[in-house]
Amino acid sequence: MADVAHDASGPASPKPDGTAPQQVGRPDSPERGKLRVFISYSRDDLYFADQLDDALNACGFECVIDRHGISGGEDWKRRLGNLISEADTVVFVLSPTSARSEICDWEVEEATRLGKRILPIICRSLEGASPPSRLRERNYIFFYDDPKAAPGSGFGSGLAKLIAALNTDFDWLREHTRYLQRATEWDRGGRPANRLLSGDDIAEAKDWVARRPKNAPEPTALHLDFIRASEEEAEARSSAQRKQLEEVAAAQAERETALHKAEEAQRKRATMARIRNIALVAVSIFAGLAGFLGWRAEKQKEQADHILKSHAEVTRSNRHLHQEGDFRGVRDGRRPRRSYFDGVPRRALQSRFWRGAGLRQGARVVREGR
């Protein structure tokens, strides 16, 4: 923070000893494993800020120090706000000048709004100046020798205390920044569903909120909105997927039922076809058997008729033979043997005999045929 705002890419004011300060560029994304520190200071304290920047970089921290001057009409709040948003911790260099700076006071308010941890350090005596209201109740780290306020204080001891404070809750603060960046992108983009958390990330975010260290800043309202919206979207997506799965399962069950019915109908048709085939074969067999039996019965009838006819002819032949013998006996005066002519008057037999020339001729044919 400064009466004149700064950026890492801007030119640095020369140090009193004539050596140009180290230029600290702003990387596009924080280096993994390093805590990102934004140094807020007044331009009058640039020399001290440069020394602090060098010391913290040497100790493994990634420092962001704004060295751009503020010009009329510039949207400096957006630029500084982005730097503060991307930082894990804000180190506020407190001095009489920064205590009275409106820009420095705005940076403190912005860091508070974003839920950033603020570590105030005093680089020189405040000379009666009052710190920003949000910093008055905090513990200060003294970087100058003040035997009355902080015995044994100085740059070295102050740096050691600051490093210890920066390393406190390191991982939780890194997650604070990461979730805040994602929530900010989601919010600025119109809060689309495709930028929300999903799957295990939601559970991890909720766990991160639950395990907030005692002295760490609370998650912001944007943090909580982002996590809550992610959870609601996941539930809605899960409900939609569950409904889709139910519809797919119902459709599959319907297809299986239709397939089962089709298979059952096919089995019935196959069974009926087999029955028809068996019936056709049986009818064919019965028809053939009936035909055979009819033919056989016809043959048997013909044989029976032939036998009966032959028997009748034989009977007639025998009868004629008997009649002829009786007729001869009557003619010769002999008594005919007992036959079916018994009881017939003799004169009637003789009259029939003489009139039966045709009968005698038929008897002769039968006899010759025998």
Account of the protein in words:
The structure is a single chain. The protein is an alpha/beta fold and 370 residues long. It contains ten helices and five strands. The protein has helices spanning 46-58, 76-86, 96-100, 102-113, 155-167, 170-188, 200-210, 221-332, 346-355, 357-369, and strands at 36-40, 62-65, 89-94, 117-122, 141-142. The chain has a five-stranded parallel sheet with strand order 2-1-3-4-5, with helices on both faces. α8 packs across α9 (346-355) and α8 packs across α10. The protein is rod-shaped. Mean pLDDT is 79; it is low at 1-31.
What top-tier CATH class of the domain at 1-168 fits best? Answer: Alpha Beta
Largest sheet: 5 strands, parallel
- Stretches where pLDDT falls below 50 for ≥5 residues? 1-31
Work out the helicity level. 55-70%
Main structural class = alpha/beta
> Order of SSEs, N→C?
EHEHEHHEEHHHHHH
Provide a count of the helices: 10
- Would you identify the CATH architecture of the domain at 1-168? 3-Layer(aba) Sandwich
The strands making up the biggest β-sheet line up spatially as 2-1-3-4-5
Oligomer: single chain
